[in-house]
Design brief:
By secondary structure, the protein is of the alpha/beta class. It is 24% helix and 25% strand.
Length: 274
């Protein structure tokens, strides 16, 4: 990757599916096992080589995020903040970061998505423009955005369909994306969906149309944490991982796990901002 990679975390929305927990704070500050939720996407982007990260949040609880994270210096990061005054969709929120991103490439992570895969700088060396999505095989693809990839090379994406009744594959589009700076031109050409929002799937399909979309396959679990059920499951998955590490440090035997963490996914990537 020749260009610098900046990071964006989209942490807006009302968190209505987690009410009344979200009555007093942003859902991305709720605990997932032993850390606030937003720490996980920050760590993901940092491992990908992003040191300069912008967090986009709604107005109501943006001060809570700022009070928690500050400048980012304690995490070895440089953090900036942007306010999305009203719900406009994920693509709208990303569009607010245009001046911050400039001519750089940008890694975008939904603030409630947690990844067990160690996605490092070396995994991105072949990215030289266009866009990249991160895919996970699931058993119920009709619940997600689903990608169809070219059979020959398994790298080129030929279609993305949101929650299809008859999925063309079992490859779910997770809440992690990489774009070149042309993403903002695509966003400016979007029209609102039936629910009045600018959809990230429409952005991705512009890249697909222009044969500029590649993909990376996740090998381990991923989870969102946007509902009570997925928040609990995400906490369990993270706890399993950390308890396994602790057991490995104390014994040479097979670690005892409190629940299976080998599932294909731990939640649902929702391409909305509730």
């Amino acid at each position: 990757m020749a260009k610098r990679l900046k990071g964006v975390i989209l942490a807006g929305g009302t968190g209505s599916r987690l009410y009344p927990l979200t009555k007093v704070t942003n859902k991305h500050l709720l605990p997932v096992y032993d850390k606030p939720m937003i720490f996980y996407p920050l760590e993901t982007l940092k491992k990908m080589g992003c040191k300069d990260i912008m967090i986009v949040s709604g107005r109501e609880h943006c001060g809570d995020i700022l009070n928690l994270l500050g400048s980012g210096r304690e995490m070895g990061l440089k953090l900036s903040y942007e306010i999305q005054d009203e719900a406009g969709g994920i693509a709208h929120a990303l569009g607010l970061t245009e001046r911050f991103v400039g001519s750089s490439n940008v890694a975008v992570c939904l603030g409630d998505n947690i990844f067990n895969d160690e996605i490092s700088v070396s995994d991105l060396e072949d990215f030289d423009g266009g866009a990249r999505i991160f895919l996970k095989e699931v058993h119920d693809p009709q619940r997600f955005g689903v990608a169809e990839v070219r059979e020959v090379d398994k790298c080129s994406v030929i279609s993305i369909e949101e929650k299809p009744k008859i999925p063309k594959s079992n490859l779910c589009v997770t809440g992690l994306y990489i774009y070149d700076s042309n993403v903002f031109n695509y966003i400016k050409n979007l029209t609102p969906s039936d629910r009045g929002e600018l959809e990230i799937t429409d952005v991705n399909n512009f890249y697909v149309r222009d044969s500029l979309m590649s993909c990376h396959f996740l090998s381990s679990w991923w989870s969102d944490a946007g509902t009570f059920e997925s928040l609990l499951k995400a906490s369990t998955l993270v706890a399993n991982k950390k308890l396994c590490v602790c057991e490995d440090e104390r014994t040479e035997g097979t670690p005892r796990m409190i629940a299976s963490a080998s599932g294909e996914y731990g939640g649902e990537t929702r391409h909305s901002e509730k």
